[in-house]
Design brief:
- The protein is of the alpha/beta class.
- It has one domain: P-loop containing nucleotide triphosphate hydrolases (Rossmann fold, 3-Layer(aba) Sandwich), CATH 3.40.50.300.
- It is built from eight helices and twelve strands.
- The strands form three sheets. A six-stranded mixed beta sheet has the order 6-9-10-3-11-12, sandwiched between helices.
- Helix 4 packs across helix 5 and helix 5 packs parallel to helix 6.
- It starts with a strand and ends in an 8-residue tail after the last helix.
- The mean pLDDT is about 90.
Length: about 250
Amino acid sequence: MSEFILETRGLTKRYGGVHALEDANFNLRHGEHVAVVGDNGAGKSTFVRQITAVEQRSAGDVIFDGQPVHFAGPLQARESGIETVFQTLALADDLDVPSNLFLGRELFKLKLGPFSILDRKAMREKTLEALKTTAVKIPNIDNPIRNMSGGQRQCVSIARTAAFASKLVIMDEPTAALGVQETAQVENIIRGLKARGVPLILVSHNLRQVFDLVDRIVVFRRGRIVASLRRDETDGNDIVSYITGVKGGVEV
């Protein structure tokens, strides 16, 4: 078995003449939690989109679970064991919580093409179990997503990711729009993933959160990785120096 669950080698994304991501060499060990930090436009979300095949990379390699991969799209990445919380959430507004949790992986009583019958009871029970495991509180899971607050919607998205996490979880700014209580809830979910040994990439601007939750911090600047630092061997001032360019840096 490979030492790493995920590696990228020379990962590059160009939009015409704009180099959004350039020669990113990155690795993530089994069970490790790594934060990806940087200023707006530093390449953090671009990096995530290449790994999850939301976009196709311009150059470079992605090695997942010891094998080179070139996913056709996010669904294939998910089927391979990568669960992702995107900033856009990817929830269906008109569906309730169980339907959103099981979107694309529905449970059936009978599966005969157009005559298939969903097992709504089983999906409801597993949804309640997932929400309990992740400590996400939704007063009425039969309520359509569109009727929920932004915080509740985000927590549903994160609960879905945590419930189905198999090999790797990626969270892109999961608490950016949340209040204090909801943020604490999400952070507890992340700690639960750590306890289960599920590796995580956390994209975040919140350095307090980063230092509380991860093992290692990777800094992006202008589309390049400029530092990879153990959390216990650095501090906030050091990280900010790399983010702002006060310190230089090379890929690690």
